[in-house]
Write a structure and sequence with these properties.
The chain is mainly beta and 455 residues long. It has four helices and 34 strands. It folds into three domains: 144 residues, Cupredoxins -  blue copper proteins (Immunoglobulin-like), CATH 2.60.40.420; 139 residues, Immunoglobulin-like; 140 residues, Immunoglobulin-like. Helices cover 5% and strands 46% of the residues. The strands form seven sheets. Strands 1, 12, 14, 17, 19 and 20 form a six-stranded mixed beta sheet that branches. The protein has a six-stranded mixed beta sheet with strand order 11-10-13-18-15-16, with no helix packed on it. A hairpin with a 2-residue loop joins strand 15 and strand 16. Bound molecules: CU-O-CU linkage and copper (II) ion (CU). The site of copper (II) ion has 5 residues, from loops. Copper (II) ion binds next to loops. Keywords: Metal-binding, Oxidoreductase, Signal. This is Multicopper oxidase family protein. It holds the Pfam family Cu-oxidase_2.
């Protein structure tokens, strides 16, 4: 496979700063603020970003399973914001969705987040107000919840994979967040790929060492096809939730925006790379310099200890709610409803709205589903558009139902390809008002947002 780099190898920014603690407050601060970061390689200047504690990704938050997470968000941005803790089956009041679970936090204001992380695994946090702009500017970070019984690895690596759109000469962040083409097509695709905010970072490992790679796609809209070179191993978790049995990695696999994949891999090559596979070859996301060691393989790891997930009993009998994904370029959507007003698609386009869920643009006054607490239900995502969408439920994971009725892995974000229909089953066991939206953030901004209620 041809292996090229996006640009010449350059020097890398220093490691992320540790979280700051203020003496006057009992909660550790999480400060959303502008910062500068060396993203583009070589002689390119630093890029002005927005980040938690001024870095992208923000500080790594890491706790033991069942532990409490407390952070005081301080908004030092020129825009209102809020933090969503993606994939955590959280207390609804802490879910970080303006207008649904809390008021947006205005510039100069704060908000105390205080919740328990019930499930072990790889999660992330990100801004949930004007997300297409705020996440693109860098407001995201990783959140790791450790199993009580951790697998034996030599390196445990949280890897936030991002896609930035920078201006050629200046390496300034492109400010066209609401550009009509991105909103109505594939979303904002960038021109610089980074891992943990660095272009093509490198880590020295030894042959035969075992690595846990915790991949999180924090990009607005790019679906990565992840490939490995010189690394062999297994997928052990998706969206935080363990796979049992573990699945050998035999080729590239896709990672949609917001999805996570945990891999346990052995260093088997004389050089090793994490790759983004594209039609014209493989691009290096991160390299592993291999020094010493021996090429002996270890046996497959045991599955990670399971999280306490609800039982999905008899999914075929569960009530079915159909959600049609509509709109975007070339879909032929004639009209849709914004608020309570039905409008021709061309008028919606003038408002920057291109997508609808069941004919509704943005969040309707009434929920898509009104579920009784503990109810098992099904959602059929029917993709009537020319694009793929990454459908995400807040506060709950779900399982896709296969053609033969078998249940797939627990996920919180599902890639639904164009023209595809997928049924998922879930147990609505977490009370509150929860968003259900496309995690291609331009699609969400341009209408692909809904919500459900569990009471
Ligand atoms: Cu990761 Cu509604 O978001
Ligand atoms: Cu979408």
């Amino acid at each position: 496979m041809p292996l090229t780099r996006r640009a010449l190898l350059g020097s890398f920014a220093a490691a992320a700063l540790p979280p700051r603690f203020a003496l006057a407050t009992p909660l550790p601060l999480l400060q959303a603020r502008p910062g500068r970061q060396k993203l583009a390689p070589g002689d390119f200047p630093e890029t002005e970003i927005w980040g938690y504690d001024g870095t992208a990704p923000g500080p790594l938050i890491r706790v033991a399973q069942g532990e409490r997470i407390q952070r005081r968000l301080v908004n030092d941005l020129p825009q209102a914001t809020a933090v969503h803790w993606h994939g955590i089956r959280i207390d609804n009041a802490m879910d970080g969705v303006p207008h649904l679970t809390q008021a947006a936090v205005e510039p100069g204001q704060g908000f105390d987040y205080d919740f328990v992380a019930p499930d072990a695994g790889t999660y992330w946090y990100h801004a949930h107000n004007r997300s297409n702009e705020q996440v693109a500017r860098g407001l995201h970070g990783m959140l790791i919840v450790d199993e009580s019984d951790r697998p034996d690895v030599d390196h445990d690596l949280p890897l936030a994979i991002d896609d930035w759109r920078l201006e050629g000469e200046t390496a300034a962040l492109s400010g066209d967040f609401d550009n009509m083409h991105d909103l109505s097509h594939e979303g904002r695709l960038g021109n610089l790929l980074t891992v943990n905010g660095q272009f093509d970072p490198s880590l020295t490992v030894a042959r035969g060492e075992r690595l846990r790679l915790r991949l999180a796609n924090v990009a607005n809209s790019r679906v990565f096809e992840i490939g490995l070179n010189g690394l062999e191993g297994w997928l052990v978790a998706l969206d935080g939730m363990p796979l049992d049995p573990v699945v050998p990695v035999t080729g590239a696999f896709s990672l949609a925006p917001a999805q996570r994949a945990d891999l346990i891999v052995d260093v088997t090559g004389e050089a090793a790379d994490l790759l983004s596979i594209e039609p014209d070859g493989g691009y290096g996301l991160m390299r592993f310099a291999v020094a010493g060691g021996s090429a002996t393989r270890r046996p497959a790891p045991a599955p990670l200890p399971p999280n306490a997930m609800p039982e999905i009993a008899n999914p075929a009998a569960a009530p079915l709610h159909t959600m049609r994904l509509m709109g975007g370029m070339m879909s032929g959507m004639a009209e849709a409803t914004l608020g309570t007003t039905t409008m021709p698609a061309r008028e919606l386009a003038q408002l920057g709205k291109f997508w609808a869920l069941n004919g509704q643009v943005d969040m309707a006054h009434e929920p898509f589903i009104d579920a009784a607490r503990g109810e098992t239900l099904r959602i059929a995502f029917v993709n009537d558009t020319m694009f793929a969408h990454g459908m995400h439920t807040h506060g709950h994971h779900f399982r896709a139902i296969g053609g033969d009725g078998t249940l797939g892995p627990w996920r919180d974000t599902l890639l639904v390809q164009r023209g595809e229909s997928v049924q998922v089953a879930m147990v609505a066991d977490n009370p509150g008002n929860w968003m259900l939206h496309c995690h291609m953030l331009e699609h969400a901004a341009a209408g692909m947002m809904s919500w459900f209620r569990v009471a």
